[in-house]
Amino acid sequence: MKVYEVFLKKAGKDEFRHAGSLEAFDDELAQLLARDAYCRRGEGDAMWLVERSNVLVADTDLLAVTIDLPHRTNNGAMVAEHRRVQRNGATDETPEGAGS
Amino acid sequence: MSIDHVGNGLSAGTAEYLLAFADDEHLVGARHTAWIGLGPFLEEDLAFCSIAQDELGHAIGLYEILLRDAGRDPSSSLDAFALLREPSEYRSSHLAEAECDDWADSLVRHWLYDRAEAVRWNALADSSHTGVAALSARARSEERFHLEHAERFMSRVGTTPQIAAAVERLLPSAVGSWAPVVGETDALAAGVTSAPSSELANRWEAAVRADADRWGLSLVWPDPASPLVAAHADRSVRSKGFDSFHESLTVVLALDPAATW
Questions:
Q1: Is B73 on the interface with A (CB under 8 A)?
Q2: Which of B54, B122, B128, B247 has the most Cβ atoms closer than 10 angstroms to its Cβ?
Q3: Are A1 and B41 in contact (CB < 8 Å)?
Q4: Positive or negative CA dihedral for B241, B247, B250, B251?
Q5: How many structural domains does chain A have?
Q6: Is 0.90 surpassed by the pTM of this model?
């Protein structure tokens, strides 16, 4: 038996999303079984199946180095602080309630 | 209804003809559901029970046509009509009724029955009864995938001894199921169906033989005139095991036949 990963998409702009996985002995049966396992209530208008052995699985070390890089997470705080300082002058030391 | 259908549009004969198909769909669907939770693997469990639901849906559609024609409201009469008739009032084939407690038997019955079912729905595609024609369109769109499902399995295991034994056991009742159905002459004259059972049987046999050739499955075709086949040719006679199965289907409903579920 082979393991397949199933992806479904509704018509429109939604992207394909992972629905689950299943076992089947060939590609044709996998499509029939996927319909009944994951789409028997019209959950999708389009379906992708990928045999799991064909999925490229990245080395987790590749991702680990990205965990502690806060400068890549811009929530706007640094820019807001910079602009506030610019408005109030470089020597401004009263950030609380300093007015607009 | 099988005995005394008084309809608005369908003759008693045509009603009996449709009842034979409805009861086949009902019984085979109910028998298929025995695999709920017991299928060979989880995904197949779901798929096979989905097929069972489809067949039960076809039965409901045909029962509704018969009940409406008789001036009865299906919402209040369908359960009782489907389940609480006397065994002698059913018109199902012995193939549909057969207990298949072995997966190979169920798979072979699924193949033989769905081949027959597709042939029968095709004959109803241009039915003069618009309800029957509409139901045929829906059923044919589903049967395509039932046959594809049978193909996937049978093409892999068609040459095994288990399948050979199941075919030997079930083929006589499958051939017997094509004996002319009571009411067929009426149904043909009314244009409700387009071909007699003898013609449908030929189409079915050609399809079954082509399947078997493709899968490398050798068939020993039973003589339609043999006692082995004739024993399964009368739809007014229930097969062995029907009564206990029928009782199991009705055990809850019979607690209070007047209850609204």
A1: no
A2: B54
A3: yes
A4: negative
A5: 1
A6: no
Residue A14 lies in a domain: yes
With respect to residue A23, please indicate whether it lies within any of the assigned structural domains.
yes
Determine the structural domain holding residue A49 and report its residue range: 2-54
A35 occurs within a structural domain: yes
Does position A98 have pLDDT exceeding 60, yes or no? no
CA distance B107 to B105: 5
Give how far A12 is from chain B: nearest CA, Å. 25
Question: Residues of B with CB below 8 A from A29's CB?
Answer: 149, 152-153
- Cβ of residue B141 closer than 8 Å to a chain A Cβ: no
Query: What domains appear along chain B, each with residue ranges and CATH number?
Result: 12-255 (1.20.1260.10)
Phi, psi of B222 (to 5 degrees): -75, 145
A-B contacts at Cβ under 8 angstroms: 32
Write down how long chain B is: 261
Q: Which residues of chain B have pLDDT under 50?
A: 1-2
Pairwise CA distance, residues B64 & B73, whole Å: 8
The verdict on B78 touching A (C-beta cutoff 8 Å) is no
Using DSSP, how many helices (H) and how many strands (E) does chain B show?
Answer: 11, 0
The stretch A87-92 carries a mean pLDDT of 72
Distance to chain A for B119, nearest Cα, Å: 22
Is 0.90 exceeded by the ipTM? no
Q: Does B45 touch chain A (CB under 8 A)?
A: no
Considering only CB atoms, which chain B residues are within 8 Å of A47?
none
Distance CA B205, CA B194 (A): 18
Chain B positions in Cβ-Cβ contact with residue A43 (cut-off 8 Å): none
- Domain-embedded: residue A81: no
B87, B91, B96, B100 alpha-carbon torsion, rounded to 10°: 20
Rounded CA-CA distance B79/B59 in Å is: 11
Q: What local confidence, expressed as pLDDT, does residue B10 receive? A: 94
Q: Is B212 exposed, middle or buried (0-12, 13-18, 19+ CB in 10 A)?
A: middle
Distance, CA of A25 to CA of B17 (rounded, Å): 40
